[in-house]
Q: What sequence folds into this?
């Protein structure tokens, strides 16, 4: 209905040859898509450090993304996983050699590694973050593991300093697992979600207008939070991989939310993206966050788009929307997708900004990227739908005027 109203406004403006107040994007409400600094600016600095978040903010990210795990003393800290052997220098520290162990998290065995919940905050603070994915290691060993409280403080102080809102997009990692650990440490049920909600409410108030999205791959934790907070909630949608024919691969343990596995719910992640599934999500969440291959159709046409001499899944030509974006919007859900990387583009895009712009033109409401400056660059490549229609009618000057007006 909102989009219909905007379209009517465009026609009125056209007939009056005035500057049109048109919807500029195919997003749920016509607003500019948001750029989310995935683990900060993790393409440039070790992920989930205050420095990584700070660089993301400097590059223009609208939101910074802390993934949350829990310490032995129940403090929420930012790490991609409870497993910390690969993202810190813990393996180099002889004093923690005896913490090395093997655990199973959501059906996956992590052998001979270190786990956040076996360290107090004071102990974790003696570790230093290291870069991942083979990226520039020159910042390794410099930065601490930040607490959620420190991430909130950074976002709020930077919002004041820069005069623009910097949101946070915390992810509850493995809630079922983390709450089991929390109970074994003597904390109460839903400790993980309660801690997050308590800290967010103290910092922002219990309000939907807080510059915060809470995300999770599990469902029951978000349903629980829906009864605890008005802060916006986003259901993440995973898959195992993309098959050679471009279809989604749904293989355990990545075929359904882990709490579904525990509770015997047989719905897959893909089931949650049907109209029925999206309607279900809309009963407890404000948005949905699918892995990006769910959103675009692709065609294998034999062209080596990335020029590496091999024809594979990454060379497939994108061919429009699968309909998931439109279905999410029809269910009233925002749609934020991930992860965009300059050093690992998908589907034959040689320009990572153009890749993000493609999804933005289709209507996604936000993108998670390790390279927030590229996300900002992508925004400049997205023609506003209203402007584009006017240009087709030979009124390019009006379109230029409209583009200049964009803040
Ligand atoms: Ca995350
Ligand atoms: Ca290739």
A:
């Amino acid at each position: 209905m909102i989009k219909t109203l905007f379209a009517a406004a465009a026609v009125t403006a056209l007939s009056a040859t005035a500057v049109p107040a048109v919807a500029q994007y195919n997003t749920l409400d016509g607003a500019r898509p948001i750029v989310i600094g995935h683990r900060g600016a993790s393409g440039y600095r070790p992920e989930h450090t205050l420095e990584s978040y700070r660089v993301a903010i400097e590059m223009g990210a609208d939101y910074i993304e802390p993934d949350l795990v829990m310490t032995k003393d129940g403090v929420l800290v930012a790490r991609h996983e409870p497993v910390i052997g690969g993202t810190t220098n813990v393996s180099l520290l002889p004093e923690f050699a005896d913490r090395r162990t093997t655990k199973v998290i959501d059906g996956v065995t992590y052998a001979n590694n270190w786990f956040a919940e076996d360290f107090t905050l004071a102990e974790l603070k003696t570790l230093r973050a290291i870069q991942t994915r083979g990226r520039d290691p020159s910042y390794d060993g410099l930065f601490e593991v930040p607490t959620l409280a420190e991430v909130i403080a950074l976002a709020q102080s930077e919002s004041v300093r820069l005069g623009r809102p910097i949101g946070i997009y915390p992810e509850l990692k493995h809630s079922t697992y983390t709450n089991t650990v929390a109970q074994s440490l003597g904390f109460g049920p839903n400790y993980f979600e309660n801690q997050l909600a308590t800290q967010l409410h103290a910092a922002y108030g219990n309000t939907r207008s807080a510059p915060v999205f809470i995300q999770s791959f599990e469902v029951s934790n978000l349903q629980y939070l829906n009864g605890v907070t008005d802060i916006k909630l986003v259901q993440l949608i995973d898959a195992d991989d993309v098959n050679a024919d471009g279809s989604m691969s749904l293989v355990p343990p990545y075929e359904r939310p882990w709490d579904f596995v525990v509770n015997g719910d047989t719905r897959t992640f893909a089931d949650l993206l049907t109209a029925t599934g999206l309607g279900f999500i809309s009963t407890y969440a404000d948005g949905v966050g699918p892995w990006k291959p769910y959103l675009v159709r692709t065609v294998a046409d034999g062209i080596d788009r990335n020029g590496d001499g091999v024809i594979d899944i990454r060379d497939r030509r994108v061919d429009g929307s699968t309909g998931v974006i439109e279905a999410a919007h029809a269910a009233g859900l925002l749609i934020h997708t991930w992860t965009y990387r300059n050093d690992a583009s998908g589907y034959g895009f040689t320009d990572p900004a153009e890749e993000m712009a493609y999804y933005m033109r289709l209507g996604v409401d936000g993108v998670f990227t390790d390279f927030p400056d590229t996300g900002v660059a992508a925004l400049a490549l997205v023609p506003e739908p209203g402007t584009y229609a006017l240009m087709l009618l030979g009124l390019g000057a009006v379109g230029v005027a409209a583009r200049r007006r964009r803040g």
